Structures are given as structure tokens and as C-alpha cells.
Amino acid sequence: MADKIAVVTGSNKGIGLELVRQLSRAGVFTFLTSRNERKGLEAQAELAKEGIEAGFLHMDVTNLLSIHAAARHIEEQHGKLDILVNNAGILPDEDAESGGLIIPPDIVRSVFETNTLGPLQVCQVMLPLLRKSHAGRIINISSGMGSLTDMDGGYPAYRISKTALNAVTRILATELAGSGITVNSVCPGWVKTDMGGPSAAITTDQSANGILPLLLSEAPGPTGQFLRDGKPVPW
Questions:
Q1: Cα 235 to Cα 230: distance, rounded to the nearest angstrom
Q2: Is residue 191 within 8 Å of 18, Cβ to Cβ?
Q3: Cα-Cα-Cα-Cα dihedral of 166, 195, 17, 161, to 10°?
Q4: pTM to 2 decimal places
Q5: What are the residue ranges of helices labelled H in 89-155?
Q6: Which tens digit of pLDDT belongs to each residue from 154-170?
Q7: What is the spatial order of strands in the sheet that 231-232 belongs to?
Q8: CATH: 3.40.50.300, 3.30.565.10, 3.40.50.720, 3.50.30.40. Which one for 5-232?
Q9: Which residues are known to be catalytic?
Q10: CA angle at 124 for the pair 227 and 158, rounded to the nearest 5°
Q11: Which of 43, 57, 163, 190 could be 200's S-S partner, Cβ–Cβ 3.0 to 4.6 Å?
């Protein structure tokens, strides 16, 4: 794994930070990214205290200039990218406390910009680097709340954004078929994070353990799938 390069977006805390930690421990040089530079550097320093050497990229997934700057840095330093985890996402209080009949459209737009268009833009910009990998991996962190089969009320902006992110996964997986790059959506489960809350069912460590095999596998593996702990989730 020593020559593998990874990027995990929105990884200054929560599941993203744990994925950076576990990828690094597996021998993958991993870039932690954050739209807040101070918080990102603090997370990088936290990992350093654990003996983990992670890179840091100041990147906002809604800002194309920052995505291109991050890609240039990776190109200059490493020449390729093997693993891309689109983890950055938001769930505003206004959405959590609202419903589809009353949610303000500007909240929906804001969530969609980060949770759906952000990952799409990152994939588009990072694709030339992923093509230089012999086994590129793209994981979009989705949610069971985006499953149409199990769709319920509440959290409308978040649900819509994750359903649309699953569409991005299917489109890119189909268009990249035969390229050696796999693209999958992953539901991380209900996790004890700022978003999931203290009552959530699993820890970030448990969640990351369910995602890591997809990222590290040298086998072709699944593509265009929606998975939780390696098992299919209904679309």
C-alpha cells in the first residue's frame, strides 16, 4: 500500500477523520481535507500526535478553484490518485427540523451544492489523476435516508441530496466501466458524530471498518453499487 495515494474530503472530524486514520495505518498516504483551514490543520496535528503522517489540503468542495488547486498539488507531489472518498456533507438544523412541505428552497440548494454537486465536481477534477492508478477507487458517502425504497418524510434537503448522489454514482460507474476505476455509494450507518448525534448506533471506528475493504481491495470489486458493510442497500 506504500505507493497508494488517497483523498478524503471533509475529513477534519467524524467518519472522514477516522477513514484518514485507518487508511494511513494501512500504509496509504492520505490527504485530509477541510474547507476550514484551521480545523484541518488541527486535525492533522491530532493525527501526528498518534504517529500518523497525513497530508492536508485546504479544499471546499463547492469551490472549483480550491478543487483544482488541490488536484495540482497532488499531481505535483505524487502524479496520481488511487482512492477518492467524497465524504464532505452537511445537514443544516433548518433541514433537520423541517419537512418537504415547508423547507425553504435556499436550504435545499445549499445542501445540494455540497452533498451532490460537490462530489460530482471533485470526481470530474480528480479523474485524470485517478486514471493514472491501476485500480482507482471512488466512494461516495451516501445515506440510507437517500434510498427511494425506504424513503420517509423529514430531512427533505438531505434526503434529496443523497438520492441524487446515488444517481451520480450510477452515472459515473457506467461511464467508467472498463477503465479499472470503480465507483460506489456507501451508507456509513447511523454513526456517533456531530451529525449522527450521541444516540447513534455505531462508532466512527466501526463505520470506517465497514468501508475500508472497498478502498483497499486490489480485486476489481463491485461498481455502481449502494453498499453498507459490503452488502447491498436498496436504491
A1: 15
A2: no
A3: 20
A4: 0.94
A5: 93-96, 105-112, 118-130
A6: 999 999 999 999 999 99
A7: 55-58, 29-34, 5-8, 83-86, 137-141, 182-186, 226-228, 231-232
A8: 3.40.50.720
A9: 158
A10: 50
A11: 190
